Amino acid sequence: MRPFLILLIILPPTLACFGSAEADRAAAEAARAEASFRAEAAEAAEAAAIDAAKREVAGTGNMDAGSSPSNPHGNFSIPDETELRARATQLIDLGLERRGAWEMLEQLCTTAPKRLAGSPGFEKAADWGFTAMNRIGLQNVRLEAVMVPRWVRGRTEELGFQLSDGSEIEVPVTALGGSIATGPGGVRAEVIECDGLEGVAAAGERLRGKIAFLSRPMRSTARSTGQAYGEAVPQRTRGAIEAAKFGAVGVIVRSMSTAEDDFPHTGAMRYEDGVMKIPSAAIGVLSSKRLSAELKKGKVEATLTLQCETLADVEQWNVVGEIPGTDLADEIVVVGGHLDAWGTGVGAHDDGAGCAQSLECARLIMEAGIRPRRTVRVVLFANEENGLAGGNGYAAKHSQAEKHFLAMETDSGAFGPRGIGLSRPADVIDRLKVLGAPLGQVGAERLFRGGGGADIGPLSKDGCIMSSLKVNDERYFDVHHSANDTLESVNPREIELGAVVMAYWVSIFASMDEAGMATAQAAAK
Hints:
Distance between the termini: 50 Å
Mean pLDDT: 88
Shape: elongated
Strand order of the largest sheet: 1-10-12-11-13-16-14-15
């Protein structure tokens, strides 16, 4: 504590002789001085931590002639702590002042709110992406063709129940992506409840001629919502296959949702060759709870009517644009999200936000005057939701033809960023994580081990490093694949900060030497 603060503590009579206004001013001045002191100390500690970490990084590779402990970067081309802090501050200021990510998200969701792959809405979205890339100044902007499935939801989605007391109710329902139709009269049958796929197997022949109700919730005690989703989602993707093996005539699934509401959440389901195809739909959490309660009272019959259909595949596109690199221009850093969305909402979080953030990431890098050594390539992928044609098509065209150093995907919603994930061993994460310290001013400094995404995943087999934006995703499955996924559910500041975090790290990865990503053992060889 500074000396004058000690005087204020040990000489209270002196303060007592002042009027209240003077005392308030003195206290305020002391508080400001203390805050300034603490800020200076925090900055000094952060700078020291960054410097120490970079010495460790440099120690795992070959130092350039002339490198010194005060300039420890060796041949890794990592900026020093002063430049990193200045870069983070500049990107934060540029982003929060303009909020370009929100602006672009609003444009996309207004232009093409319904944009499932294969639809006319996706073509509008691709046109928007092409125009947006040119508008922000990307080069080599192009559409790259891929063949995508064309599944059409149809106008009719209805579900009614006749309860054991003879009363009838109707509940909100949505077809699962890829489901067949029921036919005009619908499917009517008794409902049998099953706790996930294990429950289907346990019910066995009891399902013959019945509608299976797969009611497993997302586990509330899971340490992450993604973990809970991963545990519950097989009942959606494989429910129709497993129930049909025992003669079921339809499937109703409890939505993969963490919200206590009655909005049904859609998502992809599959069929299997040699197994009868049966219609599949999802209902909301509240309807699921009520159905479970009614089944405990007695027999419940359901009438399910769906009008969906699968048509022939069509040609659509990944949208691609670049910031050309300098001395390493033939190496690629990809940043992207998926342009398609289910259409139950407007796909604001999933994954309009990822597309807007990827574009804003590139725009911020350019506006900040950063010249990356590698080419930064923005890709808005087609058909992530129900086929991965965009990600697989991109990899088939580019993965072996070009060297992809790193790919970063953002597909977890537009929530507040925590940092990024990186698919490198623990010793590399430990060395590099301190580089995120300048983002601590917005609470997004963390570097997690493990990263990637569905669209960039195919690039990993050819050695591309995987990365992804990490957000506070506790509420992601409240909106995911549902009518809750609206512009109103997105916070303009949060989506922008995600783009800022991406721009900061991409600017580092696009210019650092490859040895900076090596393990200690590899660098020593």
